[in-house]
């Protein structure tokens, strides 16, 4: 799961309460995490863990830079959201800098003070990092999609592996001996396709294209429609769109479609207006491009999804005719979203050309992908990931085992195991995903899989009564990880094996701690031994890390 986790409102409220309690005195990272509710600590701990043991300033609370102050810094590692994690010389004070790379020596200016650390912007590089490379993408310096394109791929892998290891030790509370000498932590699995690996990209329309500071002199406010933007959000802004003509992460056929739309949609005679998030006026909201494969020919299939504020098929006709001329385009969809929110999921959906879905194959199975279906966005690396999950599950293959598939999405993991087990029971909160899972089971002739819609964060004492005790549990939560209710359920269930698949190594380490070491303040004892943790790079040039963990009942 590739979505970046934003800190919850409760986390911010917890931090605010801490600041009120201590007035203007700034707590260290470890003190702050001890005060916060335990389930929120992993988000903050990411900062401290990335520095390893030496986190605290040499003189605690004796140094704090002022806003606007310039500092000479060296980036030591990459931390939360891929920001460079640095320490102020001779103080150990932690600062974060966007787009600073490990080993880079630079001057930074303090822009924000955040209690126990500060954020800086890079002013000048003194010595470039040793692993710097030329980023092939024109938009890499400004786009938030892949911040580390200018870091060699081997260095990216090292940074991700180090981050996963440090979190396992400091948040998961596993000893360095357990992690390293006992071979619990495995070397990261690289992604052999580093560009054009995404099968889904979402672009946004906007009335004013965002320009970086060095290009502001090129702005022409009298250019009218030429100032319209279709692209990606500038990092940290919901209302600023960086115009993008080509994205090196999506497929070549999808880039052809994007270029064709960019070529014509601003023409005043066509009558298109981009949606304005402030006035809530405008027609075009988002453009989603999905790429699959024809299961018979193996050729690319592209779905074009226009998200609009109203249903006006006659207005879209020109663009529909334009994109459907590409042989790879087999589906053109219109999601109508009348709300003022910035989501691409519509209340209504219409098929304007071709099929209502595209297909993809994974681990020998065929999957139907609709406009809003969840599907692993890197199909090639998903093959690698799911093979690792199968190996961790250790299915005997005699058709006797029960699998409980938690956060099952559209059923991809459970269905790949179904052929070797007695039955798969999948649970997922999203109704559309459950419908897709049932359809995928039907398409592949799988009859030993049951998919149930339900919120795993709100389970009660009746959960578990509708399926037999599983031999294997697969848990693939989103970035916040598992709720304590579910962790307690799993500890009481005592399934022989749990395969934990995570897209957030911080919350993953926290949940592994609970499952293996228990929760002392709640008098909960851990029941599992962590046998292996395998990091997988699903998304090169981004800070995201996937982990596959095997836990065995003690």
TrEMBL record:
It comes from the Eukaryota. Belongs to the class I-like SAM-binding methyltransferase superfamily. RNA M5U methyltransferase family. GO terms for molecular function: RNA methyltransferase activity; S-adenosylmethionine-dependent methyltransferase activity. SUPFAM superfamilies: Nucleic acid-binding proteins, S-adenosyl-L-methionine-dependent methyltransferases. It comes from Flemingia macrophylla. This is TRAM domain-containing protein. The lineage of its organism: Eukaryota, Viridiplantae, Streptophyta, Embryophyta, Tracheophyta. Signal peptide: none annotated. Residues 64-124 form the TRAM domain. One of its GO terms (biological process) is RNA methylation. The active site is at residue 503. S-adenosyl-L-methionine binds at residues 376, 407, 428, 476. CDD domains: AdoMet_MTases. Keywords: Methyltransferase, S-adenosyl-L-methionine, Transferase. Pfam families: tRNA_U5-meth_tr.
